[in-house]
Amino acid sequence: MVSTPASTVTRPRPVMQWRVVDIVVASVLGVAGGLVMTLWNLVYSPVTAPLELALPGLQALMYAVWLFPAVLVGLVIRKPGAALYGELVAATVSALLGGMWGWTALAWGLVQGLGAEIVFAILLYRAWGLVPAILAGMGAGVGMVIMDLSFYYAGTRPEFMAVYAVSAIVSGALIAGLGSWLIVRGLARTGALSRFAAGREGGARSGA
User: Fold this and answer.
1) Residue 9: phi, psi to the nearest 5?
2) Interatomic CA distance for residues 140 and 72, integer angstroms
3) N or C: which end of the chain has fewer CB atoms below 10 A?
4) Measured between alpha carbons, how far is 11 from 97 in angstroms, rounded to an integer?
5) Per-residue model confidence as pLDDT tens digits over 20-77
6) Hey, where are the domains in the chain?
């Protein structure tokens, strides 16, 4: 029997079609993210005030709490549109529960979700480790920067914009990226994601 050279072995293409379980779990995670967003809306101002006092714009270091549903759902579902769907569901829940920004939250959810989604798309929906998670969080952070600096902080000084942008992207990397990756690993260890590749991979690592 002739063996196949290792250089010619290719990975099977990921299944891109959504299953019913994908929709259900993505929705549950999105709703949970929306509840977290709603709570964060109530406390973010006093929590981030010391950072803003230390250096205006630095408060964005904590703002990726609004971004993590995009990365989390993307890492779990691993299908096109998952990151965008998760962020939009979370933003919708936040708006329905009386978030201070009302339905404009959907616009932010759209752009922030797209930021993470674009990163996963560039990676061809095949890379789901820590580095892709961090990059997706940074992508969502870029989306937030675009929206916030265009609508909330238009006309502010360049140095403020620079500090705000860097802080938001770092926040996206750590809170939305690293944080979501850790959440997925934690859920995988419980067996809650056993019907997903993320759960099987996480369970295998934890049992090794």
Assistant:
1) -75, 130
2) 12
3) N
4) 44
5) 999 999 999 999 999 999 999 999 999 999 999 999 999 999 999 999 999 999 999 9
6) 19-194
